[in-house]
Write a structure and sequence with these properties.
By secondary structure, the chain is of the alpha/beta class. It has helices spanning 14-20, 22-31, 72-83, 99-104, 127-134, 141-145, 156-163, 191-202, 216-220, 238-247, 257-264, 278-281, 307-311, 316-319, 323-332, and strands at residues 5-9, 36-41, 57-60, 86-91, 107-112, 169-173, 206-209, 230-231, 250-254, 269-272, 291-294. The protein folds into 2 domains: 5-145, Rossmann fold, CATH 3.40.50.2000; 156-332, Rossmann fold (3-Layer(aba) Sandwich). The mean pLDDT is 93.
C-alpha cells in the first residue's frame, strides 16, 4: 500500500480536539500504520499529541482570524504543504476565517467543513458523532463504525514515579473552562460539596486533584486538603495529565475537558451535568468505556445557550446534585 499523508485541521478548545481524535486510528486502519498524519491546532491544546507517536507533525495556529500575509504560522503550514503536498486534507473547522488557509494548502483531495456539503443525519447528536461524520467519506463503513476518540499520554509507570501515586487512585477535577469568566458558572458544583466529597473519598482511596494554571483563587477555597491527597494542580504537562487520568480508576468532574480525556482513555467517568446536554457534549460513550452521568434531572435541564439559561440567576440544576448522589455513584461502580 502506497504511503499516504494527511493534514487535519481542528483549532477549538481541548474538548473539541479530543472529539476529532477519532479520525487518527480510522486513517491508520484504512490506509495503513505508516500513514503520515499532521495536525493543525492551537498552541494550548497541542500538548495532547506530545507523547502520541501516531502523529507526525503538529502545526500551531494561535490567531485564527489573522490574514495569511500577517500570519507566520499560516505561512508555515502553506509552505510545508507546497514542499510536501498532502494526499488528503480533512477540515473540522466551520469558521469562515479558515477559508483562505484551506484554499492555499496543497493537497490532492480536500474534505470536511467548507469543502463539501455536509448534511449531518438527525440521529447524529453528539459532537463526536458529528466530527466522525465529517471524515466518513475518507474511510470504509467498517472502519468508520470502529472509530472512537483515543489519546496517548505519558506512560503510567513514569507518572506514578514522578508524582508518587499509588497503584490505585481516583482523580477529582473540580474546575472547568468557565471558572475564570466574570459570569455565573452554570456548570460549577458548589465548593463545600467538593470539599465534602474529597474528604469522604480520602478515607477509602488515594485522591488526586487536577486543575489548570492560574486557578489558585478557586482551588484555595477547597483547601486545606486531607493530608494524603495529592495536589497536581498546574503541576503536569498535558501529556502527563492524560497519563494521570489514564492510570486512575475513575475521574470525577463537571462537563469539561477532563471528562472527555477520561472517556478517550477508557477511564470510568463520573460527570456532574446540569445545564449542558449530556447526549451532545458529555463524555462520549463507547463499547470500551464506562460513562456515569450524575444529574438532578430537573425539567428545565438541559438549558445551555437558551433563553432559560440566559434568565437563570441560580444554577439549581447543579446545586441539587448532592454529595451523597456522587459518592453513591462511585461506590456502586465498585472501584474504591
Amino acid at each position: 500500500m502506497t504511503q499516504k499523508s494527511v493534514l487535519i485541521i481542528r483549532c477549538g478548545a481541548l474538548g473539541d480536539l479530543v472529539y476529532s481524535t477519532s479520525v487518527i486510528d480510522a486513517l491508520k486502519l484504512e490506509y495503513g500504520e505508516n500513514t503520515i498524519i499532521d495536525f493543525v491546532c492551537t498552541p494550548g491544546t497541542a500538548g495532547i499529541f506530545s507523547n502520541d507517536k501516531r502523529i507526525n507533525k503538529v502545526f500551531h495556529l494561535r490567531h485564527k482570524k489573522t490574514p495569511i500575509f500577517l500570519s507566520s504560522q499560516k505561512k508555515e503550514i502553506i509552505k510545508y504543504s507546497k514542499k510536501n503536498p498532502y494526499d488528503l486534507l480533512i477540515n473540522f473547522e466551520f469558521g469562515k476565517q479558515f477559508k483562505s488557509l484551506l484554499k492555499n494548502i496543497k493537497s490532492k483531495n480536500k474534505i470536511g467543513a467548507q469543502l463539501q456539503d455536509i448534511n449531518i443525519p438527525t440521529n447524529f447528536k453528539h459532537m463526536v458523532d458529528i466530527n466522525r461524520y465529517i471524515f466518513k467519506d475518507a474511510v470504509s463503513q467498517n472502519v468508520f463504525d470502529r472509530s472512537f476518540p483515543k489519546l496517548i499520554g505519558t506512560p503510567i509507570d513514569k507518572i506514578n514515579t514522578k508524582f508518587n501515586l499509588e497503584k490505585k487512585f481516583i482523580v477529582i477535577s473540580p474546575s472547568n473552562s468557565h471558572q475564570k469568566r466574570n459570569i455565573l458558572n452554570y456548570r460549577a458544583w458548589e465548593n463545600d460539596k467538593w470539599i465534602e466529597l474529597i474528604k469522604e473519598l480520602d478515607k477509602e482511596i488515594q485522591v488526586v486533584i487536577i486543575g489548570n494554571k492560574k486557578e489558585d483563587d478557586f482551588f484555595d477555597k477547597l483547601k486545606p486538603y486531607p493530608i494524603n491527597v495529592i495536589d497536581l494542580v498546574a503541576k503536569t504537562s498535558l501529556s502527563e495529565l492524560i497519563g494521570v487520568i489514564d492510570g486512575a480508576v475513575g475521574v470525577v468532574s463537571t462537563d469539561t475537558g477532563t471528562a472527555h480525556i477520561a472517556s478517550a482513555v477508557n477511564t470510568q467517568t463520573f460527570t456532574l451535568i446540569g445545564p449542558t446536554p449530556s447526549n451532545q457534549t458529555g463524555p462520549y460513550k463507547t463499547s470500551l468505556n464506562k460513562v456515569n452521568i450524575i444529574s438532578a434531572n430537573l425539567e428545565c435541564s438541559p438549558c445551555y445557550k437558551t433563553v432559560i439559561m440566559k434568565n437563570c440567576k441560580d444554577n439549581i440544576c447543579m446545586k441539587q446534585i448532592t454529595t451523597e448522589m456522587v459518592y453513591n455513584s462511585i461506590k456502586s461502580a465498585d472501584i474504591l
